[in-house]
Amino acid sequence: MYIKADYVIKWLNGCVGIKRHEFLTSVFSGSIIEQVTVKLKSFYLIKPYFLEKRYTILMGLFCLVLTDLLQLCIPRVIKWAVDDLTLFRINQKQLLIYALYIVGIATMIACLRYVWRLCLIGTSRRVEEGLRNRLFAHILTFSASYFDKHKTGDLMAHATNDIGHIRMASGMGMVALNDAIILGLTAIGFMLYINVRLTLFVLIPMPLISLSARLIQKKMHHRYKETQASFADLTEAVRERLAGIRVVKAYNMEKASIRQIEIKSSDYVDRNISLARVTGSFFPMMLLFSNLSMAIVLYLGGRQTIYATITTGDFVAFIAYLGLLTWPMMAVGWVINLIQRGGASLDRVAKILETNSEIADPPVQSNQPAQPIERVKGNVTLDRVSFTYEPDRAHVLHNFSFNLAAGQTLGFTGPPGCGKTTLLNLIPRLYDVTSGRILIDGTDITRMRLSDLREQISFVPQEPFLFDGSVRDNITLGQTDLNESRLSEVIRMASFDEAVRSFPDGLETVIGEKGVILSGGQKQRLALARAFMRSAPLLILDDPISQVDVVTGSRIINTVRKLSLSKTVIIASHRLSAIRFADHIILLDRGRITQAGTHDQLMASDDYYAKTFRLQELEVRSPTSKS
Questions:
Q1: Is 588 helix (H, G, I), strand (E, B) or coil?
Q2: Helical ranges in 158-253 per DSSP H
Q3: Over the Cα atoms of the chain, what is R_g?
Q4: Which of 98, 339, 437, 481 is the most exposed place for a label (fewest CB within 10 A)?
Q5: Burial, 308: exposed, middle or buried (Cβ in 10 Å; 0-12, 13-18, 19+)?
Q6: What strands, in cross-sheet order, belong to the sheet with 409-413?
Q7: Are 418 and 590 in contact (CB under 8 A)?
Q8: d(C-alpha 300, C-alpha 197), whole Å
Q9: How many angstroms separate the CA atoms of 99 and 544, rounded?
Q10: Domains parsed from the chain with CATH numbers
């Protein structure tokens, strides 16, 4: 049966009052098209993976389209069988042939469905893998200040929950979108072929779906963002309490911790329920409209069958096509759901990927591009360095200047919070100076490539971090070209050899998360062995013997003194015995230099350094002091 498109559009204009250019978008795919258009601004993030898998995607779409078309053939077979049965012109053999037709079509559908799932769902997994790896690699470029301001749980939520939603939108979203357009429009085409007037009546509820989607889409997007932000807060709360489980147990904080998680969890549930009120109302509405169409078919189609306007087979086939059309109608809501959720996640991930690190290599096209460095001598100059963590906070360092020649040792000391750790963190550019300059061999460190700069430095932070792995892994940090004699040597240099021998599996002993099976002193010595493993010309130590006994501390300092013959060494320590051998000693107080000189010069001044040193000596010699 042939009918002009103008007639269909004109007829629908009269029934539901829609304009010609709104015809297609008002049926059921307009909401999807609009959603896709809105989200194109973030599509550039996943575009490379689609291009990489373009042939796989085309194969998957081809098989998906064939699957949809084959599904549309089954109602035709049913129509033939019903018409033949109605007219009593079929025998068992012909009925068996019709049954075999359906079995054959179903088998082909099953095979093609396997292929498109492998291609399209597999592509979504590639998007997930690539985007997660890219996100993690980008996060690693951020400076320490970024992590001071952002919660770990929030970043974890981006790498897990958000990436998962993007995967669903790019995988099943593509499938549902294809079904909504191809299967839906083709089903409508077959219905028009059977009976135009009946089809037009059936399509009357369809534009209501588009209207409903437009009314709630903004609410969906906003509430998806709120839900995912709440998930990030919950993740961070759980992570924090599990990481601090020993403190929780030591202070009987179990009930308080459970209560805090319950509050976060309750908020997350409330956000989801708020979201469900929107999404949950959309699917019932679609089913209502679908059932309205079914009621129209049953009444009008039944009458036309009674009056022999259409055959019984046509009536049954029409109902079957309407059943096939139900999924595209459902797919509309699902696609909108997936795109809204995936779009909100894509926006959150894009925000991170568009964030540039405060500390980075100089641009290659700049007037002063990064200078490649193979190995420095070790001259370190601080030229009027000032630093603050936040613009509106007080400075931690004030106009600090000093020059340290290659091969010399510089010691820092002072009361807690005087700026020692901050100063050491500035040299490898974990933070950047607020004003002033830091130079190595006369070159401003901001003009060096970060990788080159940090390759010149062995750094032991005040709170050494250990990975969940073996002792060997934590010392070598993945280096595979190290021989066992060198490894044994650095372990001995850090006075860690006796501890390693006491471990059940020696170097292969797994130390657990953050080195949980180790004592504070063992963690510190392992971190020292890690630093000694590198042959960098600069050695920076932040309170390197704060958690070991006096005898072990003396051995470690003797090792550092030997290393200072071939390296530039900078040490910050509260134990003055750790820096007494230094060529220069600086006392800091509130970010300013209050005293400077050698050990002998500072002892002669009989000021803070001398008094503190004598007091510590008395504590060491006291019979009641711990060894």
A1: strand
A2: 163-170, 172-178, 184-194, 196-202, 206-243, 245-250
A3: 36
A4: 481
A5: exposed
A6: 457-460, 538-542, 568-572, 409-413, 584-589, 592-597
A7: yes
A8: 10
A9: 82
A10: 20-353 (1.20.1560.10), 375-456+539-545+568-622 (3.40.50.300), 461-535 (3.40.50.300)
In the block, tokens 């006096």 appear at 550
What is the number of residues in the chain?
627
Give me 520's structure tokens.
């504070």
CB-count exposure of residue 359 (10 Å: 0-12, 13-18, 19+): middle
The angle subtended at Cα 541 by Cα 483 and Cα 410, nearest 5°, is 120
| H or E element in which residue 589 lies | strand 584-589
SS3 413: strand
Burial of 538 (0-12, 13-18, 19+ CB in 10 A): buried
- Helices 206-243 and 254-296, axial angle in degrees (round to 10): 170
Tokens for 361? 């290599």
- SS3 for 455? helix
pTM above 0.85, yes or no: no
Cα torsion 126, 132, 133, 135: sign: positive
Helix then strand then coil, in percent of the chain rounded to 5, is 65, 10, 25
The rounded distance, in Å, linking the Cα atoms of 287 and 179 is: 17
Residue type, 217: Q
pLDDT in tens, 478-504: 777 778 888 899 999 999 999 899 988
Angle at which helices 30-39 and 206-243 cross, to 10° = 40
Residue type, position 132, single letter:
R
Dig out the tokens for 321 from the structure: 């096509």
Digit-coded pLDDT (tens) for 85-140: 877 777 888 888 888 988 999 999 999 989 988 998 888 888 888 888 998 888 88
User: Residue 493's Cα: distance from chain center in Å?
Assistant: 39
